[in-house]
Amino acid sequence: MRFFRLSSVVILILCGATAVAAQGVALLSHRAVYDLSLARANAGSGVLAVRGRLVMEWADACDGYILSQRMRSETDEDSKATVSDFNLSTWESKDGRHFRFASRHTTGPDVEEVRGQAAMGPADVGGTVEFVKPAGETMVLPGGTLFPTAHSVLLLRRAVDGANYVRTMVFDGSSLDSLQDSTAWIGKRMESGTYQGIGAADLAPHASWRVRIAYFPLDQTDALPQYEVAYRMFENGVAIDVVLDYGDFALKGALTQLERVKSGC
Q1: What confidence tens digit (pLDDT) does each residue in 94-103 have?
Q2: Other beta carbons within 10 Å of 68
Q3: CA–CA separation, 54 vs 255, rounded Å?
Q4: Is the pLDDT reported for residue 62 higher than 60?
Q5: Other C-beta atoms within 10 Å of 177: how many?
Q6: How far apart are CA 263 and CA 55, in angstroms?
Q7: Boundaries of every domain in the chain
Q8: Which of 81, 86, 109, 101 is closest to 5 using CA atoms?
Q9: CA 143: distance to chain centroid?
Q10: Among candidates 156, 77, 72, 59, which has minimal Cα distance to 106?
Q11: In terms of Cα–Cα distance, which of 69, 65, 67, 66 is closest to 52?
Q12: What is the DSSP string of the chain?
């Protein structure tokens, strides 16, 4: 299940739009491909190697934002190899109040599916989640909870403003426990013109920041996060140099392809 959570984390750092004018942020609607590999494994973790790929696509659908994601990975653990395949599709309203989600995660013969919708009221009221699958499941969202695009926009706005710390609740719809407490640290601004890698035409003209986010489950009493994500975030919403840290091991995601996609408008 740790790779399932890994998938949902990436959602929070890669979403983009042609424009989010009401928030004062202009982002890139794009399709990005990342190759995944093992960055570090502590003794006793059991993780020997990881091979995988993550494909993300985000589009403006006029009435909201659509995100589709597929992540497939193969993990060598001691004497066995495990293949994980994760698919997630979401729609988020432009005012950040409504959210629909559907995910399917396969690990060997095991399959987990989650579908439903969520709605937020005023910031001090909170919201609710109704799951279609598993049927009958519900969840209460605390006031101030953000969905993925709204969370990404908040991080960018705070980075542009010079802030270095952001804490908020996030619900991404990837599982029954996908409501989490996130704490983000934002590094110093790196000015435009310094990037020369893949996608430089769309990335080099923009400033960027190093970001690290720790995610805590709501019922956790331990001071340590469940996992952390680090990456370089560009002003147009694209992320590179992704590191997904689970404590006893970590993965890195290298950008191998970046292309613009048309919006639905």
Answers
A1: 999 999 999 9
A2: 14
A3: 9
A4: yes
A5: 13
A6: 18
A7: 2-260
A8: 86
A9: 21
A10: 72
A11: 69
A12: -HHHHHHHHHHHHH---S-BGGGTB----EEEEEEEEEEEE-TTS-EEEEEEEEEEEEEE-SSEEEEEEEEEEEEEETTEEEEEEEEEEEEEETTS-EEEEEEEEEETTEEEEEEEEEEE-STTT-EEEEEEETTT-EEEEPTT-B-HHHHHHHHHHHHHTT--EEEEEEE--SSTT-EEEEEEEE---B-TT---STTHHHHTTS-EEEEEEEEEETT--SSS-SEEEEEEEETTS-EEEEEEE-SSEEEEEEEEEEEE-----
Angle in degrees, CA 162, 163, 169, rounded to 5? 145
| Rounded Cα distance, 214 and 113, in Å | 25
Cβ atoms of residues 19 and 43 within 8 Å? no
pTM score, two decimals? 0.86
- Looking at residue 146, what is its pLDDT? 93
Tell me the pLDDT tens digit for each residue of 68-120.
Answer: 888 899 989 887 888 989 999 999 999 999 999 999 999 888 899 999 999 99
CA distance 203 to 2: 31
- Both tokens of residue 196? 């020369």
